[in-house]
Amino acid sequence: MKNVIVRRQLRILVMVSALTLGVAGAGSAQASAAGRGCPAGEIFATNNTAIITDPADHRLKTRLTRFDREVRQIIHTNGARPGASKLLDGVFWSGDLKQATYERSREFDVNKVGREGLHHIAGVIAKQYHQESVLTFRCLPRTSPETDAVEIHASGVSATRLHDALLANPEARDELGGGSVTLDKRLILVAPLADLALAQKFTKALGVDWNKAEVRYGHEEFVS
C-alpha cells in the first residue's frame, strides 16, 4: 500500500528530463528559457517505506543527508554526473486510508546521461530503497508524439496549503494524487497531459497566479 502511495507521489515527483524544454502551458502560463531548470535528468526519490499520516511526525524533519550522498554515488557509479539536489515535502492522498499522507524526498539533477541511462539509474534506486516504482520525466516539445505529461512549477505554496486544497478537492486528490513543495515554497506537480485542465484548476485553488506558473511538457515513465 505504501508503494501505491509512492507511485502516486511520483506522478508529481521522481523525474527525468531531456535537455529540450517544453513550451509554455495552456492559457498564458510562462514558458521556460531553453535549458533553464530542465537538466538532462531529474530524479525525485525517497528511502521511506512507512506510511506517515501525522504532519508532526519527526521523520518529516529529516534532511535525507545520507540518502543524498548515496544516490549521488549511484548516479556517478552508473556513468552519469550528479548535479544539484533539493529537499521536498510532499502531501498525498491515500484512497485506501481515506486520508492524506506525508513524505520527505529529494530531487536530484542528473547530467551527462541519456534516456536508457536514466531508466537504469531509476531502476537501481527503486530496488535498493524498496520502492515499487520510480517516476522518470523527460522534457519534450509540446508537439512530440512521446509527450504525455506536464510538469508544473509555481511559487508561494506551502505544504499546509497543499494539504488543505487536496482535502477540499476530491477530484484532484483521486486523479492527481497530491504534490510536493520545496522548502522555499515552490510547488512541483507532474500530471498526465489529459489532466492538464484539472491540474490548472487545482493550482489556481492553491492561490497560484496561473500566468506566473511554469509548465513543461514531456514523457513520464514509472521504473521498477
Give a summary of the structure in a few sentences:
This protein is α+β, with helices and mostly antiparallel strands. It contains 6 helices and 8 strands, in the order αβαββαββααββαβ.
Question: Please, could you describe this protein's structure?
Answer:
The protein has 224 residues and is α+β, with helices and mostly antiparallel strands. The model is unreliable at 1-28 and 31-35 (pLDDT under 50). It is built from six helices and eight strands, in the order αβαββαββααββαβ. The chain is globular, with a radius of gyration of 16 Å. 29% of the residues lie in helices and 30% in strands. Strands 1-3-2-6-7-5-8-4 form an eight-stranded antiparallel sheet, with helices on both faces. The relative contact order is 0.25. A hairpin with a 4-residue loop joins strand 2 (81-94) and strand 3. This is Secreted protein. Keywords: Signal. Residues 1-31 form the signal peptide.
Please outline the helices and strands.
Layout: H1 2-12, E1 41-45, H2 65-77, E2 81-94, E3 99-111, H3 115-128, E4 134-139, E5 149-155, H4 159-168, H5 170-175, E6 178-182, E7 186-192, H6 196-205, E8 214-223
Antiparallel strand pairs: 1-3, 2-3, 2-6, 4-8, 5-7, 5-8, 6-7
Signal peptide: 1-31
Protein name: Secreted protein
Keywords: Signal
